Amino acid sequence: MTARIGVVTFPGSLDDRDTQRAIRLAGAEPVALWHKDKDLKQVDAVVLPGGFSYGDYLRAGAISRFSPVMDTVIEQAKAGLPVLGICNGFQVLTEAHLLPGAMLGNDHLHFICRDQKLRVENAETAWTGDYRQGQEIHIPLKNMDGRYVADPYTLDKLEAEGRVVFRYLDFNPNGSLNDIAGVTNEAGNVVGLMPHPEHAVEPLIGTGRTDGLPFFTSILKKLVNA
């Protein structure tokens, strides 16, 4: 029996179906989760997808963080449930304090959409085991509020503990401190990043490469071998 990975849909989510397809391509079973339901349907992992939940009112992710489903996600993530936040999902994870730091508007004040080169800094999380540390990949990026910030103490701690998972290469698209594109929690089960791996799982779409597929094969292997 294959792993079951839940994908939460908030009002304004855009990439939930794309994420479900990526999960299916990796060989796992995607399970649709609705933001108003606290029941996670006994899934083995959860993805918070990209989009503009609640229109990014107040702050990106600030309202979604209080959706009923997040009560259960927060509780189970603290108990070890693997959780991936992509773009808006990353913003929700910071608002929920499952990941440190915060997301602000891009330093150039414009929406950006481009293929982005990244370096894998940590290949030991639940979501990155099929990458190699130092590997360079290309993942689509699209955001308005993608600037990762944190206080100096938090940044130093993230760097010292190897909790920066991905870093922008060649070009910092949003002014993120230390070129940070993604981070993880101390346990390595919660990961958030701004680029969209679900858009890089087939040669026909996205970057024309499959550099995003290892996110989903990594968690599948992690769960199957647990």
From TrEMBL:
Its EC number is 6.3.5.3, 3.5.1.2. It is found in: Cytoplasm. Keywords: ATP-binding, Cytoplasm, Glutamine amidotransferase, Hydrolase, Ligase, Nucleotide-binding, Purine biosynthesis. It holds the Pfam family GATase_5. The active site is at residues 87, 196, 198. It comes from the Bacteria. One of its GO terms (molecular function) is ATP binding. The keyword Endoplasmic reticulum does not apply. Its main location: cytoplasm. GO terms for biological process: 'de novo' IMP biosynthetic process. It catalyses: N(2)-formyl-N(1)-(5-phospho-beta-D-ribosyl)glycinamide + L-glutamine + ATP + H2O = 2-formamido-N(1)-(5-O-phospho-beta-D-ribosyl)acetamidine + L-glutamate + ADP + phosphate + H(+); L-glutamine + H2O = L-glutamate + NH4(+). One of its GO terms (cellular component) is cytoplasm. Pathway: Purine metabolism; IMP biosynthesis via de novo pathway; 5-amino-1-(5-phospho-D-ribosyl)imidazole from N(2)-formyl-N(1)-(5-phospho-D-ribosyl)glycinamide: step 1/2. SUPFAM superfamilies: Class I glutamine amidotransferase-like. The keyword Hydrolase applies. Part of the FGAM synthase complex composed of 1 PurL, 1 PurQ and 2 PurS subunits. Part of the phosphoribosylformylglycinamidine synthase complex involved in the purines biosynthetic pathway. Catalyzes the ATP-dependent conversion of formylglycinamide ribonucleotide (FGAR) and glutamine to yield formylglycinamidine ribonucleotide (FGAM) and glutamate. The FGAM synthase complex is composed of three subunits. PurQ produces an ammonia molecule by converting glutamine to glutamate. PurL transfers the ammonia molecule to FGAR to form FGAM in an ATP-dependent manner. This is Phosphoribosylformylglycinamidine synthase subunit PurQ. The gene is purQ.
